[in-house]
Amino acid sequence: MPLCPACGAPLDAGALRFCSQCGAPLPGGGTAPALTALVACAANAGRQRGAEPDEDSVLTCLSEAVFEDRPQALACCILADGMGGLADGQVASRLVIRTLLGALLPPLLPEWAAGRTPAPAQAVEAIRRAVALAGAAVRERNAGAAAEMGSTVVLALLVGSDLFTAAVGDSRVYLLAAAGRLTRLHRDDSLVESLVEAGTLTREQVYSDPRRNVLTRSLGMAVDAPEPVAVRYLGLAPGDRLLLCSDGLWEMLRDERIAAILGAAASPGVACRELVAAADAAGGEDNISAAVLFALAAPT
């Protein structure tokens, strides 16, 4: 089995241009496939939380252009799960979405609008800066309102065929490759994730452990984590599907069920609605939100 020259990880059979573990370009990876994309999002307060404010916020946006007869898509998906009690969690997640969107796209749009794909380092830096600004915005709001709100966040940015993802907290990003393999792209910033990594808790026990909502990192913490947010960088291929979701979804559905629904859906909108409905039917213990992106071959 071939190994990644950068990190030594085994390469997926369907790997095209990037290592799925570290995002490093692969020798002889070839020309990036021309992609277009479809995006959608959906949310539900959850049957057990319906009388309380919905603390999840989710946004998707998509722009397409053609440069020199080559289609190019720019898509952005952001999902935030707020915390803080009463309406504070709702305020925090909306503030995170608004701050991220305002900080992330302006540095990248001039390059994209000129028909050039922004350099990976430029996109990674833009994401890290935007996430840091979102955390600072929540902390500033806390200081001004004597509140203790916070938020998770997951985001995905697709520029051409280059995908960049980041996560803080226990909301998740899943990639369902065209070959059918479901991969979680980021570790959870949670106590139970640390216990799984230490070998004192199994993956299955996470779903019922009473400590599963204890986060080790979130936006709005009094002291931000010293290291910048981890950003994954990989190349998408036609047929790949991406899911961003809050813990209200993945805690209700095992990965096999998520993969089955995501893989069978005829469109991102159908996938979102069916995933949210399935999580609600499985118990709906928390707010449920999802954003889905389908990568498609651009018409020639």
CATH topology: Phosphatase 2c, domain 1
Coarse morphology = globular
What pattern of helices and strands is seen along the backbone?
EEEHHHEEEEEHHEEHHHE
Count the E strands: 11
Q: How many angstroms does the end-to-end distance come to?
A: 34 Å
Under CATH at level 1, the class stands as Alpha Beta
Tell me the count of domains.
1
Helix content: 25-40%
Unreliable stretches covering 5 or more consecutive residues: none
CATH level-4 homologous superfamily? PPM-type phosphatase domain
CATH A-level architecture: 4-Layer Sandwich
Structure description:
- The structure is a single chain.
- With 300 residues, the chain is an alpha+beta fold.
- It has a single domain (45-183, 218-297), classed as 4-Layer Sandwich (Phosphatase 2c, domain 1).
- Helices cover 29% and strands 27% of the residues.
- It has eight helices and eleven strands.
- The strands form two sheets. Strands 2, 3, 4, 5, 6 and 9 form a six-stranded antiparallel sheet that branches. The protein has a five-stranded antiparallel sheet with strand order 1-11-10-7-8.
- Helix 7 (255-264) runs antiparallel to helix 8 (268-281).
- The longest helix has 26 residues, at 120-145.
- The two termini are 34 Å apart.
- The mean pLDDT is 88.
